[in-house]
Amino acid sequence: MTVPNEVMLITYGDSMGENLHQLNHILDAYFAGAVGGVHLLPFFPSSGDRGFSPMNYTTVDPRLGSWHDVDALAEKNYLMADLMINHLSRQSAEFQDYLQHHDQSDYAGMFLNWDKFWPANRPTQADVDLIYKRKDKAPYQEITFADSNQSKVWNTFSEEQIDLDVNAPQAKAMFRTTMAIFAKHHINIVRLDAFAYAVKKLDTNDFFVEPDIWKLLESISSEAEKHQLTVLPEIHEHYTLPRKVSEHGYYTYDFALPMLILYTLFKGDATNLLNWLAASPMHQFTTLDTHDGIGIVDVKDVLNDQQIDFTTKQLYERGSNVKKVYSSATYNNLDIYQINTTYYSALGEDNRAYLLARALQIFAPGIPQIYYVGLLAGKNDLELLEATKEGRNINRHYYTESEVAQEVKRPVVRDLLKLLRFRNQEPAFDLDGSLTIEKTDNAHFTLIRRNQAQTHTATLTVDLTTLRFSVQADNDVLTLETEQENSND
């Protein structure tokens, strides 16, 4: 299918309002025209990781609503949903059946057995060291079957997330069924969560294993195409990996942009950013914020190590309630290479800096995604952080409708919504069009977007010394309230 070229909101089903029905109402009431799509973070029954430990894909978590609510959301928005291609919940019916019936289970081959994966007398310590890991021990979990036998299964992430054998017939059948269900309920894009971890192969690091990973992606994509679905592989690693995916003709994410824009604004130097934008593909999704922290590994070699260190140090010095401990094991962080903060707080809750960051995202090649906290220029939620001791919850505030109604009155949010509506309505942002960069010096530049027919032009002119910027479309200037102010509200 053709992906609609409109701003996509990233949200949980209970983060703006208590459920999907309230979310739909809030989007209609407060964000019409500003948001054209919704990445609905996992809304299935789950045993952990805020939905990312799915027990099945056939039902909607009853706390959030029903498929009827998903259908209603799809009436005015294009939708993205997650397929956790690497794993399934420990509490899933399939895994529980495996525990109960051991090798006699119909699902015995569905989960990747650690012991059977390795030849005799392996793994050695060198084998384990080679694996690209998310924790400081070998990625397996010991299990005990009902018949008292014991074994080990691959377990890349949390204890609740048991790795699948993606080549097993049972796993393939689940993928096919899930995509058919998604299509039935008007979901347009399938996000392949943790995609690069899905293929395990002897004598590799088990991360983005080529050529096997391409066979998996082709298999999933061809099944998706039968249902007019588009796949979006999620890969948090060196930028060359998503670029490879893009070169194979798939949509990808630009996860380098969040740190890159922070560096640009903190340093007052656009050199790295402009080089990056000039080489970026149009058919991608851009982010500044997601349900996780700000990724560092994604920007390696886009920024050098000294520039990354500078940006990180500035984050902790300039950011509002951005502390190193919030991204540490003390706050239950699996990935220490992410910084937990809202993007607004990362920029010291400075309205002009925040709006400039969003303007840069909007003019960058790709379709902008905006996380629900970012949509409301939300601050770090220390109360939720301390109540849960979960680092990522600093950026996961639960908004009631009355809070949303208040937040959208803030000038910074009004201006942001104006920018997003401009992005959705302006033909110059054609994904088959072009980006031209005009640079006066390292702190002064203009980004020019044109549609393919070159009948429409949009320009962003930036002064990094003052953080002032102007947006113009075919000689009409977009007026923003915050440009009349000095800083914060």
From TrEMBL:
It catalyses: sucrose + phosphate = D-fructose + alpha-D-glucose 1-phosphate. It is an enzyme of class 2 (transferase). Its EC number is 2.4.1.7. GO terms for molecular function: sucrose phosphorylase activity. InterPro entries: GH, GH13_cat_dom, O16G_dom_2, Sucrose_GGa_phosphorylase-rel, Sucrose_phospho. Residues 6-423 form the Glycosyl hydrolase family 13 catalytic domain. One of its GO terms (biological process) is carbohydrate metabolic process. Substrate binds at residues 49, 87, 191-193, 234, 291-292, 335-338, 392. It holds the Pfam family Alpha-amylase. The active site is at residues 193, 234. Keywords: Glycosyltransferase, Transferase. PANTHER family: SUCROSE PHOSPHORYLASE. Belongs to the glycosyl hydrolase 13 family. Sucrose phosphorylase subfamily. NCBIfam families: sucrose_gtfA. This is Sucrose phosphorylase. It comes from Lacticaseibacillus manihotivorans.
